[in-house]
Design brief:
195 residues; alpha+beta; four-stranded antiparallel β-sheet; 8 strands
């Protein structure tokens, strides 16, 4: 036992280390793309609302792990992955809060294999096929509002649907999906993918 701590404090520390949280792995666009997408996101939020969150492509959705497990698995996955390219196919809308309006990415072999490798490393079982996307707004909009948001996105950034960019950075993020404000979401660790 460490000097100056009680047994109760040691138990609390041990419980904190073993506590599981929800983590996600994100592919981060390069800075110039993040700036461009943030501007588009802000324009959409000003009209349609929704929380602030960082531009990202979800590689692995919500998975419950201890922080130590998540960090270890993330480091191994980062060592196995190489940089890859992503290309926007269209602006689309989904059916639930976290896939409200987004940039749908082409599901190229590179993009899908990156997610598959990470899912395998983390022991994550996807409920369906991987749909690579970069969300623009989160929310519970009506179908009509989603359509208007898609149209507005094209007005705010005419060339966004032909955007392509390299993915050379991943982030491990603590993402409590119960927190729809996204205020508790934090980046735990980042890595640069090596060619």
């Amino acid at each position: 036992m460490e000097e100056g701590t009680t047994i109760m404090q040691q138990v609390q520390i041990s419980e904190a280390v073993l506590e599981k949280h929800v983590y996600s792995v994100w592919a981060l666009p390069p800075e110039h793309v993040r700036v461009r997408v943030k501007k588009l996101m802000e324009g959409l939020r000003s009209e349609f609302g929704g929380p602030h969150f960082e531009p990202h492509v979800t590689v692995i959705g919500a998975i419950r792990l201890t922080e130590a497990q998540a960090r270890d698995l993330f480091k191994i996955a980062c060592q196995k992955l190489k940089p890859y390219s992503a290309e926007v196919e269209t602006i689309d809308a989904g059916t639930f809060y976290y896939q409200c309006v987004y940039l749908l990415l082409k599901p190229t072999t590179e993009v899908v294999e990156a997610s598959d490798l990470c899912c395998s490393q983390f022991g994550y079982n996807r409920s369906g096929s991987y749909m690579p996307h970069l969300s623009l707004i989160y929310g519970d909009l009506t179908d009509e509002e989603k359509k208007k948001a898609q149209e507005k996105a094209y007005i705010l950034d005419e060339g966004i649907s032909s955007l392509s960019f390299p993915i050379s950075h991943l982030a491990l993020c603590k993402t409590d999906t119960e927190d729809k404000s996204c205020k508790s979401w934090v980046t735990v660790e980042e890595c640069s993918l090596q060619p």
